[in-house]
Design brief:
209 residues; mainly beta; 2 helices; flat
Length: 209
């Protein structure tokens, strides 16, 4: 099966979001793919979801370069109307998300940034390394609660939550070399290694202070 382009003129998403009447947001969707069968050929995928009434847009571009076995990723989500966000999620705050990254599969790096205006912001650099024997993932996520976030959350976390994760998948085993979470005076650390098919929190060591 070969698919080069897919377009949907009208896509309706309905959400009740705790209201008596359902709210419907309409989008158009377009996918443009250049993914040849030849292994040595460059590949590209572009996706776009656009609100028909100014609700916002989401775009994603992914490109593969066989010359360096690398990927380039760029994405953006913008929902500027707080009423649209309220109907979809129950949170009346404009949404903004950006994704970006590039590099060879053996040493790929990127970043994620997101915000719900005056509620919460998030930033997370990501690095990924893949070879024949293992996959290594490293990230450091910082989440900050703004003035519109519930006072209880801001007090408990002192306005910020940080997550550091370093994990490796090799020989069907996930090894957490660094997985720590901090929120105000609270800290927790996960250390362990388990078969990825059997990963449960009970198989990891939890240290908190």
């Amino acid at each position: 099966v070969s698919l080069d382009q897919l377009a949907v003129d009208r896509l309706a998403i309905t959400s009740q979001a705790g209201t008596e009447a359902a709210n419907t947001t309409t989008f158009s969707f377009n996918a443009d793919m250049n993914w040849p069968r030849a292994v040595t050929a460059a590949r590209q995928l572009n996706l776009a979801l656009t609100g028909l009434n100014g609700e916002g847009e989401a775009v994603l571009a992914l490109a593969y370069d066989p010359n360096n076995d690398g990927f380039t990723l760029n994405g953006q989500v913008e929902v500027p109307d707080p009423e649209v966000m309220a109907s979809l999620t129950g949170l009346p705050h404009p949404l903004s998300v950006t994704l970006a990254g590039e590099g060879a599969i053996a040493n790929w790096s990127g970043a994620i940034a997101a915000s719900l205006d005056q509620f919460v912001t998030l930033e997370a650099p990501v690095s990924l390394a893949v070879d024949r024997d293992a996959l290594q993932l490293d990230t450091a996520l910082a989440m900050r609660f703004e003035r519109e976030a519930p006072a209880t959350i801001r007090q408990v976390t002192e306005g910020e939550v940080n997550l550091t994760l370093s994990a490796q998948l090799a020989d069907d085993v996930i090894k957490f070399t660094d997985a720590s979470l901090s929120a105000g005076p609270l800290t927790a650390t996960l250390v362990g290694r388990v078969p990825h098919q059997e990963l449960t929190a009970s198989q990891l060591t939890l240290e908190a202070e």
